[in-house]
Amino acid sequence: MEEEHQHIVPYETYLKILAILLLMTCITITVTVIDLSAWTVLIALIIACIKGFLVMSIFMHLKFESLLLKILAIGVVLLFAIILAITFIDYLNR
Amino acid sequence: MIMNRAEEHNNKEIAKLGMWIFIFTEIILFGGLFIVYSITRSKYSNEFHGAAAHLNVIIGAINTVILLISSTTVAMSITAVQTKNKKLALRLLMVTIVCALVFLANKYFEWSGKFHHGLYPGSDLMMELNRGYLLFFSLYFFMTGLHALHIIVGLTILLIVYYKIDKGIINHEKYVLLENGALYWHLVDLIWIFLFPLLYLIT
Amino acid sequence: MKHDSESYLVNKGKRKGLLAWVTSTDHKRIAILYLASIGFFFLVGALIGEIMRTELFEPGQQFISAQTYNALFTVHGIIMVFLVVIPGLSAVFGNFFLPIMIGAKDVAFPRLNLFSWYLYVIGACLAFYSLFSAARPPDTGWTFYAPYSTQTGTNVISALTAATVLGFASILTGLNFIVTVHRMRAPGMSWFRMPLFPWSVYATAWIQVLATPIIGITLLMLIAERMFKIGFFDPALGGDPVLYQHLFWTYSHPAVYVMILPAMGVITEIIPTFCQKRIFGYKAIALSSLAIAFVGYFVWGHHMFTSGMSNTAQWFFSFLTFIVAVPSAIKVFNWIATMYKGSIDLKPPFLYALAFIFLFMIGGLTGLSLGAIATNVYLHDTSFVVAHFHYIIFGGMGFAFFAAIHYWYPKMFGRMYNIKIANLGWLIIFIGFNFLFFPQFVIGMMGMPRRYFDYLPQFTFGHQISTIGGYILAVGLFIMIYNLFKGRKGPIAEANPWGGKTLEWQISSPPPHENFDEVPVITGEPYNYE
Fold first, then answer.
1. Confidence of residue C32 (pLDDT cuts 50, 70, 90)
2. Residue C353: inside a domain, yes or no?
């Protein structure tokens, strides 16, 4: 009970994640410079999502939190995505 | 004694759940802006392409790196508090705070550079621009402006947390305030993770 | 010990009088603060409505200019939607009874709760400022459609700020309630042992938390348009006004579920009590609240069928609109099924509940004609729409509010009102309401536009019946409110005057400060009649 929230994440883990995040940032910038036109957006977004996922699950501790919180977080992101998609249903079909 | 522990545990869970729900509201808040961005960009993809060239990728990248580092240090400060290392916690938190200040300074330079050239919402120059360009810059100012406001709020929270760790109010037994403050800071970082490529890297 | 079993109405602690109330973090006192403020603003909004109806008695101008009329329907909408109907049931009865019904002694964040009320008051003051300040009151309609809202010279910014502040209050209340339900239920109260009013307040809270931020950011964008010409919604600057409508309704449609879900929760509490019978289909009702909250996020386009959306989008939204009607229908079936072979007691709360079902069904069924695209094109922006949403919002949420106040009055104040006069008030309100709004369906179908202060002669008869209905309604409201006020000095009420089974009826009337002398332990279902 007490113990799971005494879950202590080692410093090294955070530093490793930082390294990955910095690497991904470099990749994103490189991809932009190379310019793969339409693919650039997609790759940049995918990388941003991966970075976001790492920040949420490790830095924000979601990985070590209750199932409820994980489901809620996924649910909120999904809700936003669906609303965006539905709005595009209008604009893409005009 | 046992009742007390259960109550304390529940209180901590209450505080944490409350903070997460607040984070969800912020995600949706910025989500509205991302919707406007997406729709507007789909209509003006070439103009956005051209307009974004006027943004300074280097400053944007530096700011990205700064925020990522600051997120790391604030997360590490939790480990420090948990392991009773008050000195390290304070140092890490100070790095986070300095990062926040540098970010704001960069933002100030970026924006004043634009203002100097007559580029700000509602300016004569803006009104004369190609519409796609106008909308891009409006989005740029609005989104980074709202984000900067959140940086300022986050900074204030971090300063308060710093003070409380220093005074021992936050300690290895009671540190939910630090966790929640860190969560808010991570949110600010999270938003920038998406803002950066969408505004700076579409050239 | 004596202190804790004292009524919450008695001041505990150092502060006295009004100060003791406006600084209290007791959820019951905060509920009463909301009741007083919301009640007040309801009367202001109603008065504005009566003024509009008076002007509409005859074609041509009676005593109001066209500009003033536009301002009147705008402010009527802003007050009713943002100050009364959206906060209404959650802020008053959710605050008072959610903790009690789940066996808690307060909400998760009591100080945040009080802060929410302060935000509410600030928002209300801003709304009033926009009404009475030097520049003309807003004339955009409560929907603030761009590009008119970004160009009109009236006082739109303060109204927008008011709505944003009020939205924030709504978000914080929702946040509070979600955490309360998740973490403060009494021992033994599993999710499916929780009564259905808390269920509905919980579902509502999720909408408050996840939909309101959209209107927050959208209104901020409107303010930025007015002040800085950012251009998102201005066609002259390359923007799209329909995008504004998308964003606005992405919140404002779920907002109507914020209005109606707690209302349905109230009805779901009242019916078992006055039929002395277990609710039919407990799980179906609980889950249908969640279903409505969820699907309700995806239907917003049905407010925009004629705006210039793509056909695909029209089809999509119409389809989902028909789907979201299903969980509501499930509730109606379950209420009726509960009444079947029940031991029915026609007291005022039950009368209002019956009226709710009748009026909500009319509102809901007319919604189907609006949800179908072909008929929508004909009916959009006519007075048919006005009648539809007043049946749902006023006939639904409004009557549920009256039902709730008559149901929980003895618990909240420890006194009983006069039942016969309450019944009379109910009858006159019901008659007045139908005379006021039903003709608006008819003239709407005949072609009467909404938001028009003048009209063609063929609509005169319908308008006159409607205006007279409005006066009858006003009389009924006066009787109801006067009766409730007098009831404060009425006979002392017992703890459980209606024979209810949920937790609030097991404590004294009025409740003590900490709700329960000892933490209740739940061992069975909530509606265990017979």
1. very high
2. yes
